[in-house]
Design a protein that fits this description.
The protein is of the alpha/beta class. It has a single domain, classed as Alpha-Beta Barrel (TIM Barrel), CATH 3.20.20.80. Helices cover 41% and strands 14% of the residues. The chain contains 17 helices and 9 strands. Helix 10 packs parallel to helix 12 and helix 15 runs parallel beside helix 17. It is globular and about 55 Å long.
Length: 393
């Protein structure tokens, strides 16, 4: 997750009523609905009368029609807090990422002792409901148990990392769709020629720790798709460009040495002030370069922070939707992109409420559904981009 944060973690609309959109019909064909979206422009995403009709077409179905996965992160406690959220999740998702259950500090509170109870429940729930699981995450500079950071040295770093991977990936071998093997390993701010983050793993394992992590994961869970998950690759500014260059250079070396990297995850925690640096030609060229190297690409932690947007709910929802549309339209044009995972589905279960709150104190609205599980403008924007995406082979 972006910047090492986890979350334990009524709209007013100014658009014409739905009877102006569908001529008074009580039902609308899915394709007719999307065609209407295309002719109405961005402001009609929040149209009142089509809400229930649009919601009848789950995002996972729109994605599957194009050969794409669609899903969200999840912490099982959300289902306890809201049974309605469980139904929303089952309706909208065919892939899920454990928000916290597989992070090291959630699995182990003392050396050598692992408690897979919650993670096992997560995997069992997904298996019962035919939902693919993205394991998240094996090697990260954050979410480490206190005992690990205290004991980690150059003498034992490699053994600690590999042992953790073997225990966790081995425990779930054959049960997961993919693993985020390494997470957020790049940081141009470290001022290293290779662009690597100056993390505990780099310091105590060495520059080949990424290579070792992928080999260890492949040995422990040979059938899983192995992914390098990274933040800020989606922004076309100096920082993002530096990360893209570093990733491609490192990836070329790793692949040349036969390291089993199968995919790249783009976190995509987007912000309102990034509109001008999202979805441009350089971003699509970067995705194309990843595809040319045989990478499957996944949008892995998508949401839109609304901190800088107006207080007015309708205007704010519209602005959030425009960010989703700009980013996903560019992303899904690239055939190497195989799935979209949002970092939550409804506004009441978003890490942003705690870590990026609005200064005016209003509830944040970063996700496709509101706190009452009703679709918002962001839902329509996502639906439109999925429907417009080229079909994957």
């Amino acid at each position: 997750m972006d910047e090492g944060q986890d979350a334990n973690r009524q709209s007013t609309r100014n658009d014409p009523p739905g009877d102006q959109l569908d001529g008074g019909k009580t039902e609308m064909d899915r394709r007719d609905f999307i065609k209407e979206l295309g002719t109405m422009g961005l402001a009609k995403w929040a149209g009142v009368g089509v809400l229930e009709q649009a919601a009848a077409t789950p995002l996972t179905l729109l994605a599957a029609n194009k050969g794409l996965l669609f899903g969200s992160c999840l912490a099982l406690k959300y289902f306890v807090q809201s049974p309605a959220y469980r139904q929303l999740f089952l309706t909208q998702c065919d892939v899920a990422t454990p928000e916290v259950h597989m992070k090291w500090n959630s699995l182990s509170s003392q050396p050598g002792v692992y408690d897979f109870g919650n993670a096992d429940k997560f995997v069992a729930f997904c298996a019962t409901n035919h939902i693919k699981v993205r394991g998240h995450t094996l090697v990260w500079h954050d979410a480490l148990p206190a005992w690990a950071t205290a004991q980690l040295t150059t003498g034992n770093g490699r053994a600690m990392m590999v042992d953790h991977i073997r225990k966790v990936a081995g425990h779930f071998a054959g049960k997961l769709y993919s693993w985020d093997v390494v997470n957020e390993v790049l940081d141009p701010g470290s001022h290293r020629p290779d662009g690597l983050r100056d993390s505990l793993w780099l310091q105590n394992v060495g520059v080949d720790y990424i290579e070792q992590a992928f080999h260890a994961t492949a040995a422990a869970d040979p059938n899983a798709l192995l992914v390098w998950n990274e933040n800020y690759l989606e922004v076309s500014n100096g920082f993002g460009a530096a990360k893209r260059t570093a990733m491609l250079n490192l990836l070329d070396g790793l692949l040349a040495r036969g390291v089993p990297i199968h995919g790249v995850g783009l976190e995509a925690h987007l912000r309102g002030d990034q509109a001008s640096v999202l979805g441009d030609a350089s971003y699509e060229a970067f995705l194309s370069e990843l595809g040319r190297r045989g990478m499957k690409i996944f949008i892995t932690e998508l949401d839109v922070q609304d901190l800088t947007f107006p207080a007015d709910t309708g205007a704010r929802d519209q602005a959030v939707a425009e960010i989703y549309s700009r980013f996903l339209t560019a992303s899904l044009r690239q055939p190497a992109v195989r799935g979209v995972v949002t970092w939550g589905l409804s506004d009441n279960f978003s890490w942003i409420a705690a870590y990026r709150p609005r200064k005016d104190g209003l509830p944040v609205r970063p996700l496709p559904f509101d706190a009452k599980y009703q679709p918002k403008a962001a839902y329509y924007a996502i639906a439109e981009t999925l429907e417009s995406a080229p079909r994957r082979a």
